[in-house]
Design goal:
single chain; alpha/beta; Rossmann fold; SIR2/SIRT2 'Small Domain'; 2 domains; three-stranded antiparallel sheet; 9 strands; 36% helix; binds ligand BV8; binds zinc ion
């Protein structure tokens, strides 16, 4: 992995000019400067809360009211957040390089708000709910009404946030599409993710195995930094616009 800052930008810009198929694999770090806490940083959510109690399937069915209180708190926070230049630079880039894709672990909907079109929400979307039993699905307007946990109006069973909890598989169709896109890209940007969580953390390996260049943009090194062709250390909000503006030249 090359990370001598001086010519790293130039090499990456040359790569961007020469390539067509881009993937942006994003995590909580890209939304941090929009006011949404990450999971594993010093002030990360998992420092304060136990993910297995609050973001796992077993935790949900053990105490759905507690899990809904956690998600309601996050829904209300996320509902008022806006995209930052990290999100908007990716959306603007997609207008030029039209076969770009966003594969996001984030459930905050900020890539869509920023104007990206080709988005795969690998872990779902916190502003959507679904019934645990029937086919009912809905978007959350402003906030989930009390009392918690919300009950389905159709079949009177529990409603749940439309997110992938720990211990449950990703949606099959979503996962297969994400694999196919990762296997066929020329460049994969890995932005603001610790790559701690599987199976999403396998996608950079798929891309690399099929000859893609891996470019990490992260505020600190990760467990996968050594695998990257380039590692740009810094905030996505600052680095992405500088890296991606080349497409508009
Ligand atoms: C599955 C949705 C198989 C909810 C999430 C024990 C029990 C149960 C499961 C497991 C287990 N052990 C292992 C597992 C598998 C588990 C897993 O990987 N666990 C890990 C923790 C070991 N995976 C699963 O359970 C997955 N399912 O395996 O199913 C299966 C198959 C068949 C049948 C049954 C089961 C499901 C995983 C999805 C879980 N849902 N979220 C919610 O969000 O509330 S995961 C959660 O982590 C978030 O969604 C988040 O997206 C994801 C990854 O986190 P990151 O985005 O990377 O965030 P993080 O804070 O870690 O890192 C941020 C990075 O940004 C840092 O590096 C930081 O330095 C950097 N940064 C900060 N600021 C900036 C920045 N970078 C740039 N700019 C900045 N400004
Ligand atoms: Zn129902």
């Amino acid at each position: 992995m090359k990370n001598n800052k001086s010519n790293i930008f130039q090499n990456i810009k040359d790569k961007i000019i020469d390539s067509d198929k881009f993937v942006f694999l994003t995590g909580a770090g890209i939304s941090k400067e929009s006011g949404i806490p990450t999971f594993r940083g010093p002030e990360g959510l998992w420092r304060k809360y136990d993910p297995m109690r609050l973001a796992s399937v077993s935790g949900f069915y053990k105490d759905p009211k507690l899990v809904w209180e956690f998600y309601k708190y996050r829904q209300e926070l996320i509902y008022n957040c806006s995209p930052n230049p990290g999100h908007t630079s990716i959306a603007d880039f997609e207008k030029i390089k039209e076969s770009s894709y966003v594969l996001t672990q984030n459930i905050d909907g900020l890539h869509e708000k920023a104007g990206s079109k080709n988005i795969i929400e690998l872990h779902g979307n916190i502003l959507k709910v679904e019934c645990t039993e029937c086919i009912f699905k809905d978007k959350i307007k402003q906030r989930i009404e009390e009392p918690l946990p919300p009950i389905c109006n159709i079949c009177k069973n529990l409603l749940r946030p439309s997110v992938i909890l720990f211990g449950e598989p990703l949606n099959q169709e979503v996962w297969e599409k994400a694999e196919q896109i990762s296997n066929n890209c020329d460049v994969m940007f890995i932005v603001g993710t610790s790559l701690n969580v599987g199976p999403v953390n396998q996608l950079p390996l798929y891309a690399k195995r099929n000859g893609a260049i891996l470019i990490e943009v992260n505020s600190e090194p990760t467990i996968f930094t050594e695998l990257m062709d380039y590692s740009v250390q810094g905030s996505a909000t600052e680095m992405l616009p500088q890296l991606l503006d080349i497409a508009h030249k």
